[in-house]
Design goal:
Order of helices and strands: EHEHHHEHEHHEH
Mean pLDDT: 95
Helix content: 40-55%
Number of domains: 1
Strand content: 5-15%
CATH class: Alpha Beta
Bound molecules: shikimate-3-phosphate
CATH architecture: 3-Layer(aba) Sandwich
Shape: globular
Distance between the termini: 13 Å
CATH superfamily: P-loop containing nucleotide triphosphate hydrolases
């Protein structure tokens, strides 16, 4: 793909929607660096996300997220894989909207459950690993994801490779996003 990314692309969506894998494919296709927000935050804190939540509380994690987003927004264009809760703070959405393009991965609660059921790395889902909880949380968060997104792609029944290709095509079709 011969094009130069002018500003960050923010990949948002519910936990387990495949943001990390899709952003890996996309960063290769578009030849831009990838930033995995959760990884950077865990590195900064010197401990995994579950431990940040347990020892410091969710609010500390959310503040770290906002601080990192500000830095990313002011930095070089990159493919940014955001944590699933990034849209919870209107301030974060403002930063992303002002500095880049927001891409959303959508999925049904059933798809999400199948993808996250064996993971213990998500404090929000630990002890709540069932379709009903996921569906309820998704209903609460969905308006924020949809209001933030410039482009939305469903991942149901697709491989991450296909999803990445779809997104790259959508981006290429619209020069305004780049
Ligand atoms: C969260 C999602 C996680 C991580 C943290 C909180 C959320 O990221 O940031 O556990 O509130 O949805 P992933 O979406 O990459 O799992």
């Amino acid at each position: 793909m011969s094009m130069t990314l002018q500003k960050p692309l923010y990949l948002i969506g519910f936990m387990g929607s495949g943001k990390s894998t899709v952003s890996r494919h996309m960063s290769r296709a578009l030849d831009v660096p990838k930033i995995e927000m959760d990884e950077v935050l865990a590195e900064r804190a010197g401990k995994p996300i579950t431990q940040i939540f347990a020892e410091d509380g969710e609010e500390v994690f959310r503040q770290m997220e906002t601080t990192l987003l500000r830095e990313i927004g002011a930095g070089e264009p990159a493919l940014v894989s955001c944590g699933g809760g990034v849209v919870l703070r209107p301030e974060n959405v403002e930063i992303m909207k002002a500095t880049g393009t927001i891409l959303m991965l959508s999925a049904t609660p059933q798809t999400i459950f199948q993808r996250v059921r064996h993971s213990t790395k998500r404090p929000i889902l630990n002890g709540n690993m069932n379709v009903e909880f996921i569906a309820e949380l998704m209903t609460k968060r969905d308006p924020a994801y949809r209001a933030a997104a410039d482009v939305t792609v469903s991942i149901d029944g697709k491989t991450s490779d296909i999803v990445a290709k779809e997104l790259v095509e959508r981006i290429c079709q619209n020069g305004g996003f780049l």
